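chain below, 329 aa
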Amino acid sequence: MIAILLLLGILSFTQVELTGAVVGVCYGRNGDNLPSQQQVIDLYKSNGITRMRIYDPDQATLQALKGSNIELILDVPKDKLQSLTDATTAANWVNTNIKAYSPDVKFKYIAVGNEVEPNDGYSNYVLQAMQNIQNAINSANLQIKVSTAIKTDLVASPAYPPDSGVFSDAAINYIRPIIKFLVSNGSPLLANVYPYFAYKDNPSIGLDYSLFTKQDKNDAGYTNLFDAILDALYAALEKEGANNVNVVVSESGWPSAGGNVGATVENAGTYYKNLISHVKGGTVKRPNGPIETYLFAMFDEDLKTGDESEKHFGVFNPDRSPKYQLSFN
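prediction:
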């Protein structure tokens, strides 16, 4: 069909390439030296980045996104989860932050909470907030999927071989009803997938296995850690009867500094370049790609807390110059 449309002149090669794009970039604003929101949107557009994730409904960002044709994952911050267990509050949130900007902003997914831990207080609010947000979106006649973004450590460790993946005892009561919601709504599960942190904690995993540079398969049939982590999550989902739930990689990245093992500009550049290429295909368990993936992150964020490496995940510098030579499509 695409070939016919090309012959008819209805599609250009540029449009076909953009249609096949599977890589977005997360835009965090936890820095005191970052460009304006409009400058950031212009930077996405000039680099052909057609998907974005933001971590709160920042009005200046949403205004700048109008008419940009950039597909968006919009997060509900943790501190809003409890209030959104009230249906009226959730409807107001959707009307203010989504309906008011649609269709000029292309909302793709709403991530209700990011990396909520099963044992913290926020976990009690996630499912009800998801249900209320989805109901409000449906009432507004919008076609947007609602999910939540998880850490892959909800899968019990060690998940090797990946086919043995199962959700941990600590996570199962939290994640099981969320999975049922995703199945019933045809929504994907968002997952933040970080080979870097696994390698940092256990360098014996191997740098080549972590950076997609290993040539030969291991005894489970894998050449890279990214696929092994993702397939362990798919195995856990299958054990919950969620064979048809797709996983969107809502974050993945590698730091260029921070004093930890492997945190170098060279390694980070290798990771991002190889990740962008790799996700055009699939995994061992799900070979029919592509894998929708969001790089973390657009900029280094100097106000981030925690490990020093957390400040150095940007693919661009705050002055908008590229840290690496990457092609995002």
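Residues 169-185 form the longest helix (17 residues). The first strand starts at residue 23 and ends at 27.
thats it, cya
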